[in-house]
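Reading a protein record of the kind used here takes only a little practice. Each token is a code from a learned vocabulary of local backbone shapes. With that in mind, consider the following protein and its fold in token form:
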Amino acid sequence: MSLKTIPVNEDNHDELYTFDAPKTAEKSHLTLIPYYAWANRDEKQMNVWIQQARI
């Protein structure tokens, strides 16, 4: 799987979040593996937020 990377904005290096939206988006497939399975831990609930762009 590969996803398009977003260049780092050096002007905001001290900020955790930025409101600058990426200029482009493209369709891609993403396989999510729950943390408990990836880390070989007990099954527990986990919330994941993924920003969705309309293409």
